[in-house]
Structure formats: structure tokens, C-alpha cells
Design goal:
It is built from 16 helices and 6 strands. With about 350 residues, the protein is of the alpha+beta class. It has 2 domains: about 5-110, Zincin-like (2-Layer Sandwich), CATH 3.30.2010; about 125-340, no CATH class. α3 crosses α4 (about 95-110), α5 (about 125-150) crosses α8 and α7 runs antiparallel to α8 (about 185-195).
């Protein structure tokens, strides 16, 4: 643990992880007295991570509040319209730490100018935007959990490793190679974490299928309020908007990778579903989206990851994650780009 990391949050007592930090004025909590206390406890823990503290400060400046929800299996979501970071009350504080960092990052993305309207973006732009925002949010969550681990608070990292082994492994390997003492080293770690998210084909395919389901619903309604698919954003533009902190881009690789088969390819099932929707649009006299032709289709072999020893230990957790993960609601897709971190 570096001296700078240890001293960064000297206002938080080392005698306990959970201190009432409401007087410091960098987060808002809503709910019952007990719920507010829980949120205060988690905020105090988050503040021991430089990344977590800055994330809390950013959403505070934007007017977001943190609250709880019950009776659902999602970990949490970001509500742009009502400026809420909503967390599942059923999970432990340690489990929710990364969720707050993830969902709060989505709030920051909205502030930076990301437009979540599904009916505007063409298929390529929508899928790139969805993946880039999710990978960026999970990189932020992973970095927060890692910094807490370095501060001696290990449970959030353990939960994160089980939920996101690809991202966790990427951070571990980057820190082992480059350390985390310099700004450039942290950028490398965030870049590798961002890339690691894309290796989870199970998760990205679920997002793809939710998108197809939403478009199918539009088709079933006779393309009422027809999607125009007329907005195009390049990978370079997305990186400059999403993968940055106060205008400083952390992504160290060629932004064109966002449009490459490594980060943007889809399954044959997704491609077939989208092709059928475009054929239906044509029958209604509507123009199909030509950007679909620019997206690569991966083979079954490409879809089956080869696990390292580290990843092999996480396969069972991955499968449980996929099995429990529910299809995102269409309301979430339309309002907050499906920004619901699920188990």
C-alpha cells in the first residue's frame, strides 16, 4: 500500500470501515434512517479508494442521490431522469461497493454527453455505445475494489472477482506488470480492465439479445414510432466521451479497436435476429440499417473462451452469473440503456 493511498482519506477513521461521513458533503442518501446509515457506511468505505472518492464527488456535483430497492434480483441501476443510483438492499455492503462505483460511473457518462435513446442510434453505434459504457463502468468498479484491497479492505474485491473475473484478472496482471504508482500505469490498468469486460461473451450476448427483443417489440407494433437508425458515432468519438476522467482519456490503445471484431463482433443468433428485423422493416417500406453489415460475426469456437488456471476457478461463478441474470426490462433499455448490473 502506497503512502499516498494511505493518506488520501485521513478523514476516515482507521478504527472502523463504516463511519458517518454525511458532514463531508460528497454524497446524498435517501430512504429510512437505517437505509441512510447503510449508505453512509458504504460511502465511507468507497472514500478510501481514490477512484471511489472521485466517483462519489462527481455524482454529488451532478445532483445524484443513492437509495435502495427491494424485491428484485438486480444489483442496482442508474436512473438518469430522476438522478438516482439505486442499489439492491438484499445484498451485503461489501457486495454493493462495486455496484455503486459501477452505477455512479453511468451517471458520469450521461453527464459527459452519452445519448441513451435507442431509437436514434444505428445498430453499430448502439452496440458500440452499450459495450463501451458497460466496460468503462466495470473498469471503474474494478479499480475501486482493487484500491480498497490495497488499503486492507478485501471483501469488495473478493465479490468483484467472483462477479467479473475477466476484468479482475486484467487489473491484476496490469498492476503486476506496471504497478499503479503513476497516472500512466493507472491508465494501462483501466484500459486492460475495459478490454477484459469484452471477453465475457456470455454477458455481451445477453445484452445483444435484449436489444433484439426490444426491436422485435417495435416490429410487433408495426414499427410505430419507427426507429430511424440515423445517428452514427465512431469508436474514436465514443472513447473521447466515455473513457475519460475530466477530459483526460485513459484508453491507451487505438480507439478504432472499439469498431473491430475483437470488441464488436456478435453471434450468428444475434445477426440472424437483426437481419430478420431489417427484412420486416423493408416490408413496411422502411429503410433497413446498413451499419449492420459492418459488424463481424464470431464463430462458435470464438465464442467458447479458453480458460487459464485463474479463470478456470471462476467458470462456475460465471455460469451461475449467467443463469441468474434476468433479461433487462424494455423500460431500462429505453430509459437508461439497460444500465442494470445483475448477478
Amino acid at each position: 500500500m502506497t503512502a499516498s493511498l494511505k493518506n488520501a482519506f485521513d478523514f476516515v477513521s482507521d478504527n472502523g470501515l463504516y463511519e458517518d461521513v454525511s458532514d463531508y458533503g460528497f454524497f446524498r442518501a435517501e430512504g429510512t434512517k437505517e437505509e441512510k446509515k447503510r449508505i453512509e457506511q458504504m460511502a465511507a468505505t468507497l472514500a478510501k479508494s481514490p477512484t471511489g472518492k472521485k466517483t462519489l464527488q462527481d455524482i454529488y456535483k451532478s445532483g445524484y442521490a443513492i437509495n435502495f430497492v427491494s424485491g428484485t434480483d438486480i444489483l442496482g441501476f442508474c436512473d438518469k431522469n430522476n438522478k438516482r443510483i439505486t442499489i439492491n438492499a438484499a445484498f451485503s455492503n461489501d457486495s454493493c461497493i462495486a455496484t455503486i462505483a459501477h452505477e455512479a460511473r453511468h451517471a458520469i457518462q450521461f453527464d459527459n454527453g452519452i445519448d441513451p435513446k435507442i431509437a436514434i442510434n444505428n445498430v453499430k453505434t448502439y452496440l458500440m455505445t452499450l459495450r463501451t459504457t458497460e466496460a468503462d463502468a466495470e473498469a471503474n468498479a474494478g479499480m475501486t475494489a482493487w484500491e480498497l484491497k490495497e488499503h486492507g479492505i478485501t471483501k469488495p474485491w473478493e465479490h468483484f472477482t467472483n462477479d467479473s473475473p475477466y476484468v479482475a484478472k486484467a487489473i491484476q496482471e496490469s498492476v503486476k506488470k506496471n504497478g499503479l504508482e503513476t497516472a500512466s500505469a493507472k491508465k494501462e490498468a483501466l484500459t486492460e480492465a475495459f478490454e477484459g469486460w469484452h471477453k465475457n461473451k456470455i454477458l455481451s450476448e445477453e445484452y445483444n439479445q435484449t436489444y433484439v427483443d426490444t426491436l422485435n417489440l417495435n416490429a410487433e407494433n408495426g414499427f410505430a414510432g419507427a426507429f430511424q437508425f440515423d445517428k452514427n458515432i465512431t469508436g474514436k468519438e465514443l472513447v473521447s466521451i466515455i473513457c475519460q476522467n475530466n477530459g483526460d482519456v485513459y484508453y491507451t490503445k487505438d480507439p478504432k479497436r472499439i469498431e473491430s471484431k475483437d470488441l464488436l463482433s456478435i453471434s450468428k443468433a444475434t445477426k440472424d435476429g437483426l437481419d430478420n428485423i431489417m427484412k420486416a422493416r423493408k416490408q413496411f417500406g422502411l429503410e433497413p440499417d446498413k451499419s449492420l453489415a459492418e459488424i463481424s460475426v464470431y464463430s462458435d469456437a470464438h465464442n467458447a473462451p479458453v480458460y487459464s488456471n485463474f479463470e478456470a476457478k471462476q467458470v462456475e461463478a460465471h455460469e451461475k452469473l449467467a443463469a441468474r441474470k434476468q433479461v433487462k426490462t424494455r423500460n431500462a433499455i429505453n430509459n437508461v440503456m439497460g444500465k442494470k448490473r445483475s448477478r
